[in-house]
Amino acid sequence: MPELPEMENYRLLLNPRITGIPISAVEVGREKSINTSVEFFQQQLIGASIYTIERRAKHLLFHLNTTKVLVLHLMLGGMMYYGSGDDRPERTVQITISWGNRHLFFIGLRLGYLHLYDVLDVERLLLKLGPEPLEPEFSFNDFALLLQRNRGTLKSTLVDQSVISGIGNCYSDEICFEAGLLPSRRCQQLHQEELERLFLSMLHVLQTAAHQGGYMEMPLFSGDHLTGGYDSQCKVYDREGEPCVRCGRPLVRQDVSSKKSFCCLNCQS
């Protein structure tokens, strides 16, 4: 599932390519991926333009030059591709937004969605989300307070969007590995020094992954050499049986709080 770095990468790459240009056509192949009738969805988009793209947690917010906002959540298996009709991926496309001969294809939205809201409705929708971990005002003290009052494991807490927003299965494991902590550790058991390591690891992993394009497998457009650049740098996620980059012992997969998790039992504690 795309997480904060993947959605931030999409935001940065799409903003200069699709903003300020009137939308010429909208095709909906799966009505369940939107929250209105197809006719109303098309009516609201065609002729309007996107003036900016914002990210909140794992969502992208496409702000139209009207009172409307498109809210995208890719969920499991969702991705996007931007290009010409000849570039159309050989995958099932649920929604296509067009600007003349350029198109943004939304792929794999079987669980994900592209919903249309008024601005005020979006604000209410996102109220349940926790703080953004990369915002400058999110301090170590804020982070420590959130974890210390949580009884769950590091795994369940880091992926809980109401606690801290944007982190999922992949980066929770990568953060724990960098901090030398097992995802199964209980938050309330952590000492001050461990909390500090975890906080710094979270910032470093998320910033590095976003800067290097996240781990998505498919480029966003032809010639895109950034998207997916972090995949080869993941140290533990989906690396079961491979040698640990720190100690050489085989990495293991464990189910932690009913979620798959990857770690090194030798150099994480």
Automatic annotation (TrEMBL):
Question: Which residues are in the FPG-type domain?
Answer: 235-269
Name the Pfam families for this protein: Fapy_DNA_glyco (PF01149), H2TH (PF06831)
Which PANTHER family does its entry note?
FORMAMIDOPYRIMIDINE-DNA GLYCOSYLASE
This protein is called what? Endonuclease VIII
Q: Which UniProt keywords apply?
A: DNA damage, DNA repair, DNA-binding, Endonuclease, Glycosidase, Hydrolase, Lyase, Metal-binding, Multifunctional enzyme, Nuclease, Zinc, Zinc-finger
Q: Which residues cross the membrane?
A: none
Signal peptide coordinates: none
Query: Which Gene3D superfamilies does the entry mention?
Result: 1.10.8.50, MutM-like, N-terminal
List GO molecular-function terms, semicolon-separated.
endonuclease activity
> So what does this thing catalyse?
Hydrolysis of DNA containing ring-opened 7-methylguanine residues, releasing 2,6-diamino-4-hydroxy-5-(N-methyl)formamidopyrimidine
SMART domains noted in UniProt: Fapy_DNA_glyco, H2TH
The record's comment on protein family reads: Belongs to the FPG family.
Give the top-rank taxon of the lineage listed in the UniProt record for this protein.
Bacteria
Q: Which PROSITE patterns match?
A: FPG_CAT, ZF_FPG_2
Ranges where the Formamidopyrimidine-DNA glycosylase catalytic domain occurs: 2-112
